[in-house]
């Protein structure tokens, strides 16, 4: 018995040791970003920056709003992310319903094409997309991102939504159809309400992916009036040396929506799982 | 008769509803993709009409020393990033699967890097890596672990390691949580039986845990390999692929050729040269996951 408790104690010592190392490793960069965003310049640019802040300032945040085009970048990000999310989720909902519930030739081929394009990275497509968008005359225009982002978001949404739809028992729609509903009515009256937690999660992730996207935004937009936050913030870097306060404060602000939605979605995901029995 | 019209209606509806998705996949991706294959055989530069040059771009790329260096970097970057993420990820997944005080908080905290954008992560690490004011060098020197600051982002031999560290930091949560999902499906009775038979935890780990989650391990590794292989922003923002391409990978190299040297045709040939590897991985993935209907 005694040996058993000692072994148990040993196990928990090792376990907590690993947990502490993992937490420091994960949280330190986040802490450093937030801490730097509130650190006055004279304390930031020293060879021995203090680990714990001695004094703090909101000056970097004020500069961000007064001296830079940060708000414009945030507006552009919101514009692109919201519109792209709405567009992509809508066409993915009807598409996924079609692929999981209706029978026609070419259905399996389509499902496979979706998985393939889901895995096809922007790093392969960004030059072709740039050439195509220039030819369409959408150079340096944030609306070009609305054309290009569906190529990333739609395969992802379909991939996720198809598994949600498959988990919904077909009997429910069949019952509705016996009562005289058409397939389309069954989608809107039966499937969508049940799948709504899943749709909320997928929308959240779609928004986050749009909000955080970098490569296409870098290639397709060049002037501050068109750039999104990911590009705009990173371009502060090259214009000034003592720029880290601005970079860190804008990074903190740009992270807030995505991180917030992410944790919201985690919660949704669980209730969705419990309520719908969705796997 | 009624059933027949319903079936016809459903078929027409099916095609109508899938049309927007099909448009995105076959037109918005397909047309530029096919055009790109054509342009890789031309001397396309921005703002000029392309002229057909046959295999010139490919010959140029394959005889270029820099290309092979970059390709080698890409493999080192991918294999070591994914390797570290897998090993650390399994350990942490096992740890957060154990019941202990504060587990919920720890799980949530470990997820944070995944929620941050690649840009934010890269800029933050770039700041911590800074030669003069970076906290990493500062701490290492305060603790007397090094005498001179390490040139994390500009050192020939260290730059690639620096970007690997960032990739592991950002990508670890994906491994922890997808492997954790696998661990939760393992039948606990197997461990009880093994304990009665006298198997220690190490044996249990290699004979029960690893084989049980093998399917999830392989899918996680495959997905992460595809994403890591094509990572752009963390390398671009931290080292810019430098110094002298010491940390350049295929994605940053093609960006450089296309947008700084303005040689679209060559860039497309370089990007296209890795597509076979990519397609191979995608095919393996879709075989493993299956297009289950």
Fraction of residues in helix of chain A: over 70%
Percent in strands of chain B: under 5%
Quick one: overall form of chain B?
flat
| Termini separation of chain B | 28 Å
As a whole number of angstroms, the C-alpha radius of gyration of chain A is 24 Å
Order of helices and strands of chain B: HHHHHHHHHHHHHH
Number of strands of chain B: 0
- Total number of β-strand segments of chain A? 0
> Class by helix and strand content of chain A?
mainly alpha
Task: Write down the overall geometry of chain A.
Answer: globular
Number of distinct helices of chain A: 13
Distance between the termini of chain A: 42 Å
Mean pLDDT level of chain A: 86
Instruction: Give the low-pLDDT segments of chain B.
Output: none
Multimeric state: heterodimer
**Main beta sheet of chain A:** none
Describe this structure as you would to a colleague:
The complex is a heterodimer of chains A (279) and B (293). Chain A is mostly helical and 279 residues long. Chain A contains 13 helices and no strands. Chain A is globular. Chain B is 73% helix and 0% strand. Chain B contains 14 helices and no strands. Classes of the chains: A mainly alpha (279), B mainly alpha (293). At the A-B interface, helix 1, helix 4, helix 5, helix 6 and helix 8 of A face helix 1, helix 3, helix 4, helix 5 and helix 6 of B.
Per-chain topology:
The complex is a heterodimer of chains A (279) and B (293).
Chain A: H1 2-37, H2 41-44, H3 59-67, H4 70-101, H5 107-119, H6 122-135, H7 143-148, H8 150-167, H9 170-178, H10 183-212, H11 215-220, H12 229-236, H13 244-276
Helix pairs in contact in A: 1-13, 3-13, 4-8, 4-10, 4-12, 5-8, 8-10, 9-10, 10-13, 12-13
Chain B: H1 2-39, H2 56-62, H3 65-97, H4 103-115, H5 118-129, H6 135-142, H7 159-183, H8 188-196, H9 201-212, H10 214-229, H11 233-238, H12 250-260, H13 264-272, H14 275-289
Helix pairs in contact in B: 2-13, 3-7, 3-10, 4-7, 7-10, 10-14, 12-13
């Amino acid at each position: 018995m005694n040996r058993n408790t000692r072994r148990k104690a040993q196990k928990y010592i090792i376990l907590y040791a690993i947990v502490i190392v993992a937490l420091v490793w994960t949280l330190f960069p986040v802490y450093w970003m937030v801490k730097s965003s509130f650190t006055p310049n004279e304390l930031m640019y020293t060879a021995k920056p203090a680990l714990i802040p001695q004094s703090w300032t909101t000056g970097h945040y004020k500069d961000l709003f007064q001296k830079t085009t940060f708000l414009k970048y945030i507006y552009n990000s919101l514009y692109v992310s919201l519109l792209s999310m709405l567009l992509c989720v809508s066409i993915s909902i009807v598409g996924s319903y079609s692929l999981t519930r209706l029978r026609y030739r070419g259905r399996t081929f389509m499902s496979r094409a979706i998985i393939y394009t889901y895995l096809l990275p922007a790093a392969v497509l960004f030059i072709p997309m740039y050439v195509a968008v220039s030819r369409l005359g959408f150079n340096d225009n944030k609306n070009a991102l609305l054309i290009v982002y569906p190529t990333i978001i739609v395969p992802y949404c379909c991939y996720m939504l198809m598994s949600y739809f498959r988990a919904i028992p077909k009997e429910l729609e069949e019952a509705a159809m016996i009562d005289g509903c058409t397939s389309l009515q069954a989608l809107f009256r039966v499937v969508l309400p049940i799948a709504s937690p899943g749709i909320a999660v997928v929308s959240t992730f779609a928004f986050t992916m749009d909000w955080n996207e970098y490569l296409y935004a870098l290639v397709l937009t060049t002037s501050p009036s068109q750039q999104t936050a990911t590009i705009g913030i990173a371009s502060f870097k090259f214009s000034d040396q003592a720029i880290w306060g601005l970079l860190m404060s804008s990074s903190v602000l740009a992270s807030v929506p995505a991180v917030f939605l992410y944790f919201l979605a985690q919660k949704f995901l669980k209730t969705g799982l419990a309520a719908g029995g969705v796997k | 008769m009624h059933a027949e019209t319903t079936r016809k209606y459903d078929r027409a509806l099916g095609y109508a509803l899938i049309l927007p998705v099909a448009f995105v996949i076959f037109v918005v991706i397909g047309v530029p993709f096919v055009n790109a294959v054509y342009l890789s055989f031309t001397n396309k530069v921005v703002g000029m009409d392309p002229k057909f040059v046959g295999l010139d771009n490919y010959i140029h790329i394959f005889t270029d020393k820099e290309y092979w260096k970059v390709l080698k970097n890409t493999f080192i970057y991918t294999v070591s990033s994914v390797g570290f993420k897998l090993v650390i990820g399994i350990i942490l997944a096992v740890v957060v699967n154990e019941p202990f005080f504060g587990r919920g908080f720890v799980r949530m905290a470990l997820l944070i890097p995944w929620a941050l954008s690649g840009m934010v992560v890269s800029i933050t690490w770039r700041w911590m890596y800074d030669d003069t004011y970076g906290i990493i060098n500062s701490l290492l020197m305060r603790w007397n672990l090094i005498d001179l600051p390490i040139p994390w982002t500009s050192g020939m031999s260290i730059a690639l390691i620096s970007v690997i560290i960032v990739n592991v930091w950002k990508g670890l949560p994906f491994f922890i949580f997808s492997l954790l999902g696998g661990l939760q499906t393992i039948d606990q009775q197997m461990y009880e039986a093994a304990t009665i038979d006298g198997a220690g935890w190490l044996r249990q780990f290699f004979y029960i845990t690893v084989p049980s989650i093998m399917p999830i391990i392989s899918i996680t590794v495959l997905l992460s390999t595809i994403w890591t292989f094509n990572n752009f922003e963390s390398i671009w923002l931290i080292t810019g692929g430098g110094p002298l391409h010491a940390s350049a990978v295929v994605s940053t190299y093609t960006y450089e050729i296309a947008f700084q040297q303005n040689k679209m045709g060559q860039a497309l040939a370089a990007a296209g040269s890795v597509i076979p590897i990519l397609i191979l991985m995608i095919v393996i993935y879709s075989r493993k996951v299956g297009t289950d209907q």
